[in-house]
Amino acid sequence: MKPSDSALLEEIKKKIASDANLLETTVWSQKDFEFLSFFIEEKAGCRLSISTLKRIWANDYQRLPHISTLDALSTTAFDKNWQYVKSASISNRNTKKASALKNGSLGQRKSYGKIGMGLLLVIPTVLILIGNVKAIQKRKSKKTEVADVVFDHRKTLENQLPNTVVFNYDIEAINANRFFLQQSWDRSRRVEIFKGTRERTDVYYIPGYFTAKLIADEEIIREMPVHVTYEDWFIAARQPMSNIVTFDRDLWLRKDYLGIEAETLGSKGIDTNKDFQLAYYHVKDFGVNGDNLTYKASFKMNPLENVDCPIINVHLQGKNGYYWIMIGNKGCGSELSERVGDKLHDGKTQDLTKLTTNMYQWNEFEIRTVDKNVHIAVNGSEVFSTSYKTHIDGIMEISYFFNGMGMIDNVELRDGQGEIKFSDEFQEYLENVP
To answer: Residue 63 CB: number of other CB atoms within 10 A?
Structure first.
């Protein structure tokens, strides 16, 4: 294994640990590695086993891990595959070397050992530049606009699922080796496209307000929203995250709240004794500005033997930003994070324990936002407040994500003037079920 490869892998590991707020790697617990596995799956769309992660972070390997593992780690850290990051590092080192040779005498005075160390020290600088994804994408986007790249779409159905979406594009003027179309944040939903073609179809199995991406050599050159709506609530589960299983209305619980039985999950291959995600969606234009709203819902979870920290993720997706509010069981505050607009709060570095409750009983939840000032209440008591700067804009999706058996009730969304724009107590569904 080359020293430069080893040094590059170490920097990637440090970046991942920092982003995941997992510091002091020598004292990581089993739960920390479980979180790291989930964190990488969320970022890269594939899961690395806990034993693999322990071996990599302990440097217990004689040669570099498999390329698929390296790609997952590189994508998690910098949204680039291993070869791209490595090439960028080599390119930067060669530039430094050429500069030193040009200056001649300066390079001759340095020992070979110092030169080698200098080349390794270049790597962190390169990674910092690569890691500034937002800035890079902004610059690339401006260059692409000049080339007038075509990228648009047409849904083939309205308010129905699955929904085939037809994408149109023109990549003929772009100089790149490979091109991809990615239907959302989910890297597993990426397909390759080729020059000489203008059209690609893809299926959306779940509703949502997605951001489709046109990619050239791992660089996002154009993005656009794809609003896949549905006429009713929609239930889906993931195990693993790349595998989506959906449930028709006749499989839902026949109760005055929204839920599903563990046996029903099992009938479609979801093993509740292993990690899985259960999600409820309602997707449409709610006619509510995300910067001024009041949102309420009730929720609870049923215990599962393998879930030590039951958690709900409440998601309100706007055109330009979103709410991602996590609430967990008592004792699980470290596992939570809260994202509103451009503001992120992480339970690893901030006390979020007030956002914990008894998840095995019904809880009332409320978000009240006035001019980007957010107040969150659980069971009638304010437990968290924050503010943000960027506009969230119109709410286009309400969704809930559980890491176990969860259910919801009494959903209500009001605009800034207090007018109810959406509500559901699930009584109508109970009455209409035979």
So the answer is: 7
Query: Which domains can be identified in the chain, with CATH numbers?
Result: 3-131 (no CATH), 140-228 (2.60.40), 234-432 (2.60.120.200)
C-alpha atoms less than 13 angstroms from C-alpha of 318 in its C-beta half-sphere: 20
Q: So what's the pLDDT on residue 24? A: 63
At 116 the three-state DSSP class reads: helix
Tell which residue, 4, 15, 19, 115, has the closest CA to residue 337.
19
Which pair of tokens denotes residue 358? 């008894």
Query: Mean pLDDT across the stretch 403-415?
Result: 98
| C-alpha span between 24 and 2 (Å, rounded) | 26
What is the pLDDT at residue 120? Answer: 42
Sequential DSSP letters for 135-153: HHHHHHHHHHHHHT-EEEE
Share of the chain above pLDDT 90, in %: 60
Alpha helices (H) in 104-225, listed in sequence order: 105-109, 112-131, 133-147
How far is C-alpha 211 from the chain's CA centre?
Answer: 12
Overall residue count recorded for the chain in this entry: 434
Residue 95, pLDDT score: 53
Query: Residue 370: what pLDDT?
Result: 98
Sheet strands side by side (includes 420-424): 381-387, 373-378, 363-370, 293-302, 405-415, 420-424
User: Which stretches of 217-350 are assigned E, i.e. beta strand?
Assistant: 219-228, 234-238, 244-247, 277-283, 293-302, 311-318, 322-329, 337-340, 343-346
